[in-house]
Amino acid sequence: MKTVAVRNIARAPRALVDALAAQGTATVHEAQGRIGLLEPHLRPIYPGARIAGSAVTVLAHPGDNWMLHVAAELCREGDVIVVGVSSQSTDGMFGELIATSYRARGVRAVVVDAGCRDVRDLTAMQFPVWSRAICAQGTVKATVGAVNVPIVCGGQAIHPGDVIVADDDGVVVARRDAAAAVLAAGREREECEQENRQRLAAGELSLDLYGMREPLERAGLVYLDEGSELE
Question: pTM of the entire structure?
Answer without folding.
Answer: 0.94
